[in-house]
Automatic annotation (TrEMBL), chain A:
It comes from Halomonas rhizosphaerae. Residues 18-436 form the DUF112 domain. It comes from the Bacteria. InterPro entries: DUF112_TM. The chain crosses the membrane at residues 20-43, 55-72, 78-96, 108-133, 145-161, 168-189, 201-222, 319-340, 352-375, 387-404, 411-440, 460-484. Keywords: Membrane, Transmembrane, Transmembrane helix. The keyword Transit peptide does not apply. This is Tripartite tricarboxylate transporter permease. Pfam families: TctA (PF01970). The lineage of its organism: Bacteria, Pseudomonadati, Pseudomonadota, Gammaproteobacteria, Oceanospirillales.
UniProtKB/TrEMBL annotation, chain B:
Keywords: Membrane, Transmembrane, Transmembrane helix. The chain crosses the membrane at residues 14-33, 45-64, 92-125, 131-157. Residues 18-158 form the DUF1468 domain. It comes from the Bacteria. This is Tripartite tricarboxylate transporter TctB family protein. It comes from Halomonas rhizosphaerae. InterPro entries: DUF1468 (IPR009936).
Automatic annotation (TrEMBL), chain C:
Keywords: Signal. This is Tripartite tricarboxylate transporter substrate binding protein. It comes from the Bacteria. Transmembrane segments: none annotated. Residues 1-24 form the signal peptide.
Length: 500, 158, 335
């Protein structure tokens, strides 16, 4: 027992580990915030510097980068309406309106405190329930992954934008882009129009940088001559009463975040989406209507995506399965340092588990410090005149895209998606559904076909499985409810209910 | 906000027709994968998604029937004029042209030189002069990019 | 006054960058290495364990990227399409040697330069811990009574599970539902959850789970029981006739574009030979139930050709109809 405590506190007491965690967190915030620079990329490049290090040092730096990076994406989502990472897409829904209202400082402060609360709760859950959650994740069959992906896409198409048809079109368009390339099962080329370049598919970061970076840059050209709305970033530290007010919501959304994060393959992006939907449904009187600067709409995704970090560590430390791309990199580090990620990890080397738990908590403390102090410097970026900012955004987009694969063709594609995104934006289509389609589309196709193969390609058996398995039944029911909510049946049921 | 959405913007109908045509194109490409797909074949999802896109673009087009054209727009010719005025302002066209030229230049003029020229030219154009400060800011930007990407992240740039 | 100064500065910076690319010695920047299978699988494990030793020798950073899908075609196609400057490597498994046969692609390892054949592994047919079957014989019996009912985890046409299935079908009959995953890793997760009934896997990916009792080993693809997995019977116990294909196993190698300059090829070959010989890596491979080969040049080519001829003809004998071409048409000699 005393061993457990000494491992938990290891990162807090060793000055070197303390420094590395702090550096990692700070670097993570900035890397996560720059659109086009992803946490995954930073982690996979930095990890190679750490191979010769002690395992604890390497893990400390990675934990910092991960925690900081997931949070950093929200900064630019709030200030510029450009999410720095997919997990911050939802944050922009209410974060940017808040900034436009002159409450950028409050929004950043609140999102920082809430991220820390989410992160700490996520860590707590990781420590308390790793074995239990890991068992639960195993219960998810391919059809359940399929249902979750369907639910995610359904939610994003109904949640964002003013018109359902446009939302669905955007999701389908994104998924179609995601499917371009070779089929996973038969390796047949799909939707490649005979191009060899497209055989390997279109990297989702290319689409993301195009749609979020370049399209936004072009869109902003319309108000080039306007003086930029000066985002006030005073009043950063949110009053305690405000934090306490949203604490119940943040605890609920943290739990959503941990659970979604623990599912292999799903991470902060889907967690934040679910949390946002949860807030939208349960909070009857938000501070402003959702989508127009509701604090609740900021609290929910920000707690959830940071809680998902703790969640993502659960399958990694108990099963040796990566919860997302960053934990895949960390698994690589464990192997390199001679550890066996897998069921034996917690039995043979429990100190790695407890060290990680203590380290995650520490990184969240640093997140609080850096998140609340560096904002003034950071938000100066927003006050840079658009005439300077727009060309610079384009250059950063080019660098970010090129560094994925050192491939100029992808840079051209990125510009193409930027121009497409500009026109979609002009005519009332949202970017969020498109990008989530690109990320989830292939998962949808893959899991659907796994589920179909499992039941011997029988449509009837497939549908039967959806309602006979308890887990699938719950998911199917939730999907049915969301669908029902979009039809006139909702108003009909409501009126019946009210009459009674 | 909602008012704006009930009115058809200049060029919106044309764009939505283009989306419909695009959906048909995707359907055709998806059909070429393996004809009419079964329940579990490489083509089932692409064809399904193309049909979803087709259906939703039809719904979008139908919804236009309920919307009115902006009363200030008199006829189709005037609509085209408004469209061109809104989206093809000189500085947007120039920026697009510069961006395309910049991407083309990277390949044969190396990343740093073309980026420097691109930044300097767009800064000077957007800020209508201020040549000296534009050049200095471009140089500073290049220095930061070099330090961050080439030295810290060791990203290879062409 | 400032203008010419800055212009000359820009030119200086630019020419420095250009001069650098001519003068510097390979490797002067990060190397991109693509792993053709997903994270957590055998190829991934081998690649990630070997890479740090390579980085030590080359004194550079290697960025590892998993590009799974299409039985590894996607990852290999990606590397082949990159510039032939030695900055794009492929960590591949055995599958490309069967691409032309399966009609998956018109290229194979003949179209790349082999830097090193790192090692080869053994195959174990694994099942969930609560599986009703204790041996391959029981599974075969059940499958023959209920054809097309059991769910086998696969990794796509030409993947290791489908190759093993073909070998089994060459000597017996096994009709199953083939559920395709992005690699060993996701397949193992699905099996831990009981969503598939069995899956032929490389021992490197699954040995730990079998030893810890989270999974069951039904048979090892060897003639005799192995030390790494005591108690798991050799496959010949259930299927004596399969012996003619043995020894057989997946292998892992490092490959680079064929048109890479010769001096870079030589540097890479030397580096990898040294890295694979590293004692620490040798221990890792042994733990994973794999054998270090460390072949390059002529020896590597021979190994690849031999593997291809044994496997291709086995698959041809098992089920010629599913193949897109016969080994004969492709000029693959009989073993």
């Amino acid at each position: 027992m005393s061993d457990t405590f000494s491992y938990l506190l290891m990162a807090w007491l060793d000055p070197q580990l303390l420094l590395l965690t702090a550096l990692g967190t700070l670097a993570g915030i900035y890397v996560g915030a720059i659109p086009g620079l992803s946490v995954t990329m930073a982690a996979s490049i930095l990890i190679s510097f750490t191979f010769s290090w002690d395992i604890n040092n390497a893990l400390a730096l990675m934990v910092g980068i991960y925690v900081g990076g997931v949070y950093g994406g929200s900064r630019t989502a709030i200030l510029l309406n450009i999410p720095g990472a997919p997990s911050a897409v939802v944050t922009a829904f209410d974060g940017y309106p808040l900034a436009q209202r002159g409450e950028a400082g409050r929004a950043i402060g609140l999102s920082t405190v809430m991220s820390v609360i989410g992160g700490l709760l996520g860590t707590l859950v990781l420590a308390g329930s790793a074995p239990f959650l890991a068992d639960m994740a195993l219960e998810f069959a391919p059809r359940d992954y399929f249902l979750i992906a369907v639910l995610g896409l359904l939610l994003v198409s109904t949640l964002s934008g003013k018109s359902l048809a446009r939302g669905i079109f955007s999701v389908a368009l994104g998924s179609t882009i995601g499917l371009v390339g070779m089929d996973m099962v038969t390796a047949q080329p799909r939707l490649t129009m005979g191009s060899m370049e497209l055989m390997g598919g279109i990297h989702y970061v290319v689409v993301m940088i195009g749609l979020f970076g370049v399209a936004e840059a072009f869109y902003q050209l319309h108000n080039l001559t306007k003086v930029p709305v000066k985002q006030k970033v005073d009043k950063i530290i949110p009053p305690l009463s405000m934090v306490l007010k949203y604490l119940p919501l943040s605890i609920r959304t943290s739990i959503i975040g941990v659970i979604v994060g623990a599912l292999p393959g799903t991470g902060g992006d889907i967690a934040s989406l679910f949390a946002y939907d949860h807030a939208k449904r349960t909070v009857k009187t938000p501070s402003s209507p959702f989508g127009e600067g509701a604090y609740e709409g900021l609290v929910a995704p920000e707690t959830a995506n940071n809680a998902a970090v703790g969640g993502a560590y659960v399958p990694m430390l108990t099963l040796g399965m990566p919860g997302d791309a960053v934990t895949a990199v960390i698994i690589g580090a464990l192997v390199i340092h001679g550890l066996n990620p897998g069921p034996m990890l917690m039995i043979e080397t429990p100190h790695i588990f407890w060290f990680t738990v203590g380290n995650l908590a520490l990184a969240n403390i640093f997140l609080l410090i850096f998140g609340l102090t560096g904002i003034k410097v950071f938000s100066k970026v927003v006050e840079v005149p658009k005439a300077l900012l727009i060309p610079l955004i384009l250059v950063l987009c080019v660098v970010g895209t090129y560094s994925i694969n050192s491939n100029m063709t992808e840079v051209y594609w990125m510009l193409g998606f930027g121009i497409l995104g500009y026109w979609l934006k002009v005519f009332g289509f949202q970017m969020g559904p498109v990008i989530l389609g690109v990320i989830l589309g292939p998962l949808l196709d893959e899991t659907y076909r796994q589920a179909m193969s499992s039941v011997g390609d029988s449509g009837g058996q497939f549908l039967l499985a959806l309602v006979t398995n308890p887990l699938s039944l719950v998911l199917t029911a939730v999907i049915a409810l969301v669908l029902l909510g979009q039809t006139p049946a909702k108003t009909w049921l409501k009126s019946r209910f009210q009459r009674n | 906000m909602s008012q704006k959405f009930e009115r058809v913007q200049a060029g919106e109908k044309v764009f939505d027709w283009l989306l419909l045509l695009f959906s048909i194109g995707v359907l055709f490409e998806a059909y070429r994968i393996d004809g009419i797909p079964g329940l579990n074949s490489p083509g089932s999802f692409p064809v399904g998604l193309a049909l979803v896109m087709l259906a939703s673009s039809v719904v979008i087009l139908i919804s236009h029937r309920r919307k009115r054209r902006d009363p200030r727009i008199r006829n189709a010719f005037h609509e085209a004029q408004v469209f061109l005025y809104e989206h093809f302002q000189p500085h947007i066209v120039v920026f697009t042209f510069l961006a395309v030229a910049y991407l083309a230049a990277i390949v044969w003029a190396s990343f740093y030189i073309s980026t420097y020229i691109f930044l300097a030219v767009t800064f000077i154009y957007f800020r209508q002069g201020k040549v000296v400060s534009s050049l200095i800011i471009s140089a500073a930007a290049i220095a930061v990019i070099y330090a961050l990407f080439t030295l810290v992240f060791r990203v290879y740039l062409p | 006054m400032f203008k010419p100064l800055l212009t000359s500065l820009a030119i200086a910076v630019g020419s420095m960058a250009m001069a650098g690319s001519v003068l510097a010695e390979y490797p002067e920047r990060n190397i991109q290495a693509t792993i053709q299978w997903g994270a957590g699988g055998a190829t991934d494990n081998v690649a990630r364990s070997l890479t740090p030793h390579v980085e030590d020798i080359l004194d550079t950073t290697m960025v590892l990227t998993n590009r799974p899908g299409g039985t590894g075609v996607i990852g290999m196609n990606h590397v082949m399409r990159q510039r032939a400057d030695g900055y794009n490597l492929l960590y591949g498994a055995e599958n490309p040697q069967l691409y032309p046969l399966m009609g998956l692609a018109d290229f194979s390892y003949d179209d790349m330069h082999t830097v090193n054949i790192i090692g080869q592994g053994l195959v174990v047919i694994a099942a969930p811990a609560d599986s009703p079957f204790d041996s391959l014989a029981e599974l075969l019996e059940h499958a023959q009574e209920n054809p097309g009912e059991l769910r086998m985890g696969g990794t796509g046409a030409g993947g290791l599970p489908s190759t093993v299935l073909a070998m089994v079908n060459a000597v017996d009959e096994l009709d199953v539902r083939n559920v395709t995953f992005g690699g060993d890793g996701p397949g193992i997760t699905a099996m831990l959850g009981g969503h598939i009934d069995f899956m032929p896997l490389s021992l490197a990916a699954v040995g730990e789970q079998i030893r810890s009792g989270k999974m069951k080993g039904l048979a090892v693809l060897t003639k005799e029981e192995i030390d790494a997995l005591p108690g798991v019977p050799p496959i010949t116990e259930a299927l004596p006739d399969i012996e003619s294909f043995l020894p057989w196993g997946p292998f892992w190698g490092v490959f680079v574009n064929q048109d890479t300059p010769d001096d870079i090829k030589a540097t890479l070959e030397e580096t990898y030979e040294q890295a694979v010989a590293n004692e620490e890596f040798g221990d890792f491979m042994q733990n994973f139930g794999a054998e270090v080969l460390n072949l390059n040049g002529e020896e590597a080519e021979q190994y690849l050709d031999n593997w291809q001829s044994v496997t291709a003809w086995a698959m041809y004998e098992a089920d010629a109809e599913t193949l897109e071409a016969t080994p004969e048409e492709l000029g693959i000699p009989r073993p």
